[in-house]
From TrEMBL:
It comes from the Archaea. Gene3D superfamilies: 3.30.70.3270. Residues 35-64, 75-104 form the 4Fe-4S ferredoxin-type domain. It comes from Methanosarcina barkeri str. Wiesmoor. This is Ketoisovalerate oxidoreductase subunit VorD. GO terms for cellular component: membrane.
Amino acid sequence: MVLKNIKYAIRNITRPPVTRMYPEKQSELSDRFRGLQILDKSKCIGCGICANTCPNAAIKIVKAPIAPGSTKQRWFPQIDIGHCLFCGLCIDQCPKGALSSGKEYAKGLVKWKHKDLLITPEKLAREVDLEEGDEK
């Protein structure tokens, strides 16, 4: 067994390393990768089809301001990322194409408390910072 491992190590000593240095070096993502959803508030009609389609019931329709600093409110989806499967059914079923898939998979998603994983319409529209929750 030891000789077998030494033989394997000698054979692979000239090959380049395969270890990825994450998070210092980000991995390249494929075009089909589904990260955190992005909401286009101008296209969203608040119909709730995304919430009805979600298999985990992670999407809830809530009232939110239509723009930062505005007093007018409309219905927008709010996603509990702790329960989201990233299956893409909400994006596929959106009749106006208001939801799309982004490439974020670490920023804003790594939290210690489950209540911090609630992605509000402002965070979905990227009107506030995903990590801090502060306005840009």
